[in-house]
Amino acid sequence: MTSSAFPLKKEKKSIGRFLLDELKPRGKWLTPFNIISIPVMLVGAAIIVIRFINGIGAVSNVTQDIPWGVWKGFNVITGVAFAGGAYILTFVVYVLKVDKFHSIVRVTVLNGFLAYVFYAGALVLDLGKPWNIFNPIIGNNFGANSVLFLVAWHFLLYIVAQAIEFSPAVAEWLNARRAHKILSGLTLGAVIFGITLSTLHQSGLGALFLMAREKIHPLWYSEFIPLLFLMSSVFAGLSMVIFEGSISERVFADQITSENRKQRKDIILSLSRICAFSIFVYLFMQILVFAHGHRWAYINTPMGYWFLLEMLGFVVAPMLLFLLSFKRANIRWARVAAVLTIVGIILNRLNVSIIAFRWDAAVHYVPSWMEIVVAVSIVFVEIWIFRWVINRMPVLRESPSWANNKHV
Amino acid sequence: MSIDRRNFFKVLGVTGAGLAFGKQAQAEPAGEEETEFKAILYDSTRCVGCQSCEFSCAEVHNLPEPEDFPEVGVLRKTNENRRTVVNAYDTSKGEVYVKRQCMHCNQPACGAACLTQAMLKTKEGPVIWRENKCMGCRYCMISCPFDIPKFEYNSPNPKITKCNMCFERQQEGQLPACVENCPAEALVFGTRRELMAEARRRIVENPDAYYPHIYGENEAGGTSFLYLSPVPFEEIGFRTNIQNASYPALTKGFLYSVPAVFVLVPSVLLGIHKATKSNLDKTNNYD
Question: Which residue, of A90, A335, B95, B125, has the greatest Cβ tally within 10 A?
Fold first, then answer.
């Protein structure tokens, strides 16, 4: 416990001084992660400046036929799927009250919250006229029959809901006891609201492509895209929880109590069970869509092989590995499966939004190095903020003793 | 007086609408009745490929003049500087010219996609784009089955560009520039109803000259740009896999499910939450 890091009680420091102190970096500077991420983020920032001076075309390879590139396909559409762990875990912990996942729910909500904030940020970069971003929120500009309108509102509301879910941790950090009590009371409402929003916008991201019926390769297009997106967000999010957890466990080893460390193995095995079954449901849905659409004719083509690779290599294989991991009680298999699942989700989302989108176009879109640098920078900035929060607020470590509830 | 089923529903509907909209509902129909979708009929049997439409379009919208010309085997495309193009195709009935531009769908996918109503189907028929509303998300480009909206990628303040059927000229009572300047009378402007009748008349009166189909009658739920051709439309570069239902209909099911989800999911979640509480042990409160 590092309760000595909260000097508010002893010295009468002003809240401003306290925040300033907290803003200062802590720990070693020359870590491998910093050495890689700092130059990338600097180059990314420079590219963003160029983008706003000369237009999107100056840094990006998107075309008139394929107007959404990696900033939307990877950062927004894929990133949101990975942030799905937050709504699944809050459902399990706060609605079903399965207490054993309690120790990881706060870090998952933090991850989800940051993911949404930064992916909304990626969206701003990709908008041609970002200064009009508030048009769908205010004024008489409601395009209420647009799926994107729904998704935009849900992003905004879900960010608020997640902020409320996470706010007790901030209150504990600031030692604000009364606020803590009020904010904790809001958690259940925010959770229920957040889960509802999540089911709608996770599927909504798939529904975005419903109108592109002839433009997406038939192996990836069906009227069930929304359901497939929703179902896959379950194991995408949980795989991310497993993956992120196994890294945090090492990087933030000093924050995790020995009791929590013991629970971790059990938690990962339980999560891999949920993953295995939800992947099975997803696979079954994919098979139904495939068989129902009489799609055998497409299999013996290059796109068909690509589809088979996605399905066998990154859906069936991780499902079997997840099964294996909890049969053998071996978390190493669960981690391998989580990584495979993550690759599979990236593949799937990029396939729908970019690769199989206008697969027949004369000139196909390949992202420029600048787009990729920016896409990666956004993830790095998110990780920096994540680390900053973890090192200061009681996210992985136990709450201060005055907050008697256990991470609620 | 006997009330039959139909009348009953009529009364019910009128009462309901009256209650819901009050005075507004009564005030509206008077003005709307006179407005009918305007449309353009393009007859490729008459087109001589002179590009007058392209030049006049460029002039009216302050775009650079076209420098290339229709050639068989070369597919010219519309782009951010060119809202209409004429292409030449070698077909079973010799060389045929085809003008392409926005189809001005009756229920446009781009309009349904737009979350700010920047892309708008006007009640006069043209689908227009409004700069002050657009946020540049390019979802209209994703959704358009004809790949029509184009984006100025190389501008810091980019526009979505596409044919707007010269909406501003129509407002002043003028014809669209391409129609006005077509020397071969391949383009005709009028209400969609009149033009459908005219197109049918041409096919019936001269069945040998025309392929018996009006492209745009049903495609994408019907469009305000109608095409006549001497040959099947796939020979002159048209996508024939365009569905006949409107494109916004594809998202209807999803959008209709939203209010239901918003009522049902929270109720179920709250129910489950309550069910996990013990009825007997009041002291053990988890939250």
Answer: A90
Residue B130 contacts A, CB cutoff 8 Å: no
Q: For residues B154 and B182, give the distance between their C-alpha atoms in angstroms, rounded to a whole number.
A: 32
- Residue A118 CA to residue A378 CA, distance in Å, equals 7
Residues 6+ apart with CB under 8 A from B131: B118, B159
Contact B142, A68 (CB under 8 A): yes
Residue B194 belongs to some domain of the structure: yes
CATH for B228: 3.30.70.20
Domains and CATH numbers, chain A: 36-392 (1.20.1630.10)
- For residue A149, the chain B residue with the least C-alpha distance is B115
Could you count the other beta carbons within 10 Å of the beta carbon of residue A21?
A: 11
Chain B nearest-CA distance from A53, in A, is 6
Q: Are strands B150-151 and B160-161 parallel, antiparallel or unpaired?
A: antiparallel
Give domain status of residue B139, yes or no: no
C-alpha distances in Å from residue B201, one per residue of A323, B207, B240: 68, 10, 24
Q: Please give the average pLDDT of every successive group of 10 residues along chain A, which has 408 residues.
A: 45 72 76 92 96 94 94 94 95 92 93 91 90 84 90 93 95 90 92 95 95 94 95 96 91 84 89 95 96 90 95 96 93 95 97 93 92 95 93 88 62
Q: What is the pLDDT of residues A352-403, one digit of tens each?
A: 999 999 998 888 899 999 999 999 999 999 999 999 999 989 998 888 888 7
Radius of gyration, alpha carbons of chain A: 22
d(CA A216, CA A301): 15
Number of domains in chain B: 1
Of A80, A68, A84, A315, residue with least CA distance to A216: A68
Angle at A188 between CA A183 and CA A189, to 5 degrees: 85
Q: How far is B272 from chain A (nearest CA, A)?
A: 7
Indicate the residue of A68, A135, A214 with minimum beta-carbon distance to B138. A68
- Residue for token pair 């004809």: B146
Q: Is residue B156 part of a domain?
A: no
Of A123, A212, A226, the CB nearest to B142: A212
Closest chain B residue by Cα to residue A354? B142
The ipTM value here is 0.89
CA atoms within 13 A on the CB side of A26: 13
pLDDT tens across A181-209, in order?
999 999 999 999 999 999 999 999 999 99
In a domain, B278, yes or no: no
